[in-house]
Amino acid sequence: MSAPRGIQRAGRAIALLTALACPPISSAHQGAPLAEPEFIPPAPGTYTLHRIMPAPEGRVLGIDGHPQPLSRYTRDQITLLGFIYTTCTDPEGCPLAYRVFDALKEAIAATPSLHGKVRFVTLSFDPARDSPDVMRRYAGSRVAEKDGGLRWYFLTTGSARELMPLVEGFGQDIRITFDRSGARPRRELSHVLKVFLIDRMSDVREIYTSTFLYPRLVLNDIETLLMEDALKQSRAPVKK
Amino acid sequence: MNHKSVFRAIAALAMTCVGFTVAVRADETCNSPYIAKLIKGQEDYVYVWTLGVEGLGDGSDKLVTVDVNPKSKSYGKVLHSVSTGARAEAHHMGFTDDRRRIWAGGLSENRIWVFDIATDPARPKLVRTIGDLGDKSGFLGPHTYYALPGRMFVQALSNTKDKGGVTGMVLYNNEGKHLGSYAMPTEGGGDGYGYDLAVNPKKNVLLTSSFTGYANYMRSLGELIKDGEAMKKFGNTMVLWDLKAIKPTKVLAVPGAPLEIRWSLNPKDNWAITAAALTSKLWLVKQDAKGEWIAKEVGTIGDPSQIPLPVDISITRDGKGLWVNTFMDGKTRYFDLSNPEAPKQTYEKATGKQVNMISQSWDGKRVYITSSLLANWDKGGADNEQFLRGFAWNGKELAQKFEVDFTKEKLGRAHHMKLGSKALRSAAAGG
Question: Do A53 and B150 touch (CB under 8 A)?
Fold first, then answer.
């Protein structure tokens, strides 16, 4: 079965543009310390996280190159998923998400009640460049399971055709821009940073942009989902 | 009773802190901060959400695309219109956060029309109708459409029970699935009324304003102003909410129907400005030295005793200037907002016999104005001009560049505007 023509065209366009535009892989994605929110976030469990939409399904590749359904990485645990491309340098884009994920990983490792309940997924939207091998190098030591038990998966797709339904399904927009700061305009892929909080049933429950992406806020939301689960279990009929 | 006497009557009521009117959210500088694809160069299109007029064309509400790129051969001409097939007091519209769709609604029904503007930005296509707002929430008259990531916040004006002004907000996902409903507060000083909403994510603040209900805004103006009890039923508050939790935190007293809310886009600023329609006052919402949110009257628009009726405002991208349209005198005013505590009018011009919405380009060099307030409140006879007019602004003078006569074109009453661009054609469309 072939993808719709529009998606095929878009896929070809993205493949071409990424090949034209991409500078070398951004290695560390380190930066200035993360800012703290200018407000006191509401306490966990005092607000509702809506079921915004189901996470889309599609085929992805892990760093071992084996295809898997995306749902393999969005069910049964709370998932924090962000799109990146490895050459992204926008400080308000992928690098920010990376630093937030790093900070959260440390926080989760230091919180035994969260161990084994959360996973991270970093999904490339640049399949032309970000092969499983490239993603492996990009991930570095982050894929190792540490004592916090949090797994961080680095995924890509086999082609733009496989990617597009995921991008569309999450509402993760990609656009083409021109960097005119140099002698010659350079085409670049750009995106609005979005990080998706997905519950154990694979429903998207929060979408963070750079204006709301604070580790403290995300942790509160994770706690809120866990409290919701605990409440459901306490209300479930006891099997005899 | 002619319009002048009508509004003089309202002036008296304004002094007793009742309010009325309807205006509009518009332009490139007044979108939700979650809308990423701002048009920072030359826009190609202005989309005009247009009220149908019985006997004019198909008589239905419609989304009209006008070419506004001066380099185009069809500059200043209508390129396309897509009809809803209904006449439902078309009023406001808003982009989804990905700017692929426009949600547009009418105040007389609970239907929301969703248009695809990404596949072919010049020719929007009606792709969905959402009709469950009343059933899900009990609210009526969807007014403001404000994008959150993956979601759309809709502020209603009324309710299905008594069609009064007590109302609330409804949250949908981008596919039109109802997620939650939120009543405007009626305690702690709240009057329960709603009008506009706008957010400041940096401060986790959602700010709302207040107007009136269906029973008032759908009546003929002449009847309404003779009804003293009805004229008491207008909003006099703004409400601060915890944006994350969507819970009200503080009610601010802002008499005279505070309407459009504009947060300064300057990253260093954390204030919003609004215009109270009946009192013709500008109000600033800000934090005081202790961090408490307050509302403060900071300026006057024209001569309040003449009820100029400020119906729309548009803030410049740097937060240093504010356009104000006043319906009754047909004037467009510019205020220097360098000191938002003391806005100073620096320019005014009569831009129509009746003017309502005002939109500006991101660079502030182009200003668009439309004419219609509400079907039953627009002026009559020769004063009932219905148009979109495009102006150039050089910092000193507004110079009209084109006009589309919406009556001559058999389109209807020109109301809310949003800007469009060929460059925003979606990748999936092959662009």
Answer: yes
CA distance B115 to B64: 11
A117 and chain B in contact, CB less than 8 A: no
Q: Tell me which chain B residues have a C-beta less than 8 angstroms from the C-beta of A194.
A: 149
- Locate B286 and state its tokens: 């800000």
Rounded Cα distance between A47 and B197, Å, is: 20
Whether residue B177 lies within 8 A of chain A, CB to CB, comes out as yes
Chain A environment of B245 (Cβ under 8 Å): 42, 46-47
- The pTM (predicted TM-score) of the whole model is 0.89
Nearest residue on chain A to B172, alpha-carbon basis: A52
Query: Is there a contact between B247 and A47 if contact means CB atoms under 8 Å apart?
Result: yes
Chain centroid, CA B287 distance in Å: 25
Structure tokens at A88: 């992204």
Using one digit for the tens of pLDDT, what is the confidence trace for B189-235? 999 999 999 999 999 999 999 999 999 999 998 788 889 999 899 99
Q: What is the CATH class of A5-23+47-235?
A: alpha beta
| Residue A10: its H or E element | helix A5-21
Q: Give residue limits of the domains in chain A.
A: 5-23+47-235
Q: Provide the shortest C-alpha distance from residue B205 to chain A (in Å).
A: 9
Band (A18; pLDDT cuts 50, 70, 90): very low
Residues of chain B in contact with residue A5, where contact means CB-CB under 8 angstroms, are 430
CB nearest to B149's CB, from A42, A209, A217: A209
Instruction: Identify the closest residue of chain A to B36 by CA–CA distance.
Output: A192
pLDDT tens digits for range B62-86: 999 999 999 999 999 999 999 999 9
For residue B129, pLDDT beyond 60? yes
- Tell me if A53 and B173 make a contact (CB, 8 A cut-off): yes
In Å, how far is A159's CA from the nearest CA of chain B? 15
Residue with the two structure tokens 């690098």: A95
| Chain B contact present for A47, CB below 8 A | yes
Give the sheet arrangement for strand B139-148, strand by strand: B139-148, B151-159, B168-173, B178-183
Domain enclosing residue B98, as ranges? 3-429
Whether residue A51 lies within 8 A of chain B, CB to CB, comes out as yes
Angle between helical axes of A5-21 and A160-170 (0-180°, round to 10): 100
pLDDT score at B107: 97
Q: List the single residue in A5, A13, A207 with the smallest CB-CB distance to B149.
A: A207
B281: domain CATH number is: 2.130.10.10
Instruction: Kindly list the distances between the CA atom of residue B213 and the CA atoms of B40, B199, B376, B387, B431, in Å, as whole numbers in the listed order.
Output: 36, 23, 14, 27, 43
Instruction: Say which of B98, B173, B180 has its CB closest to residue A48.
Output: B180
φ, ψ of residue B310 to 5 degrees: the values are -65, 125
Structure tokens at B392: 């150039």
In tens, the pLDDT along B295-330 reads 999 999 999 999 899 999 999 999 999 999 999 999
Question: Are B175 and A204 a contacting pair at CB < 8 A?
Answer: no
SS3 B154: strand
| Chain A hits for B171, Cβ within 8 Å | 50
Instruction: Indicate the pairing of strand A151-155 with strand A118-124.
Output: parallel
- Where do we find the tokens 């085929």? A59
Task: Name the nearest CA neighbour of B24 among B381, B377, B403, B370.
Answer: B370
ipTM: 0.90
3-state secondary structure of A156: strand
Count of domains in chain B? 1
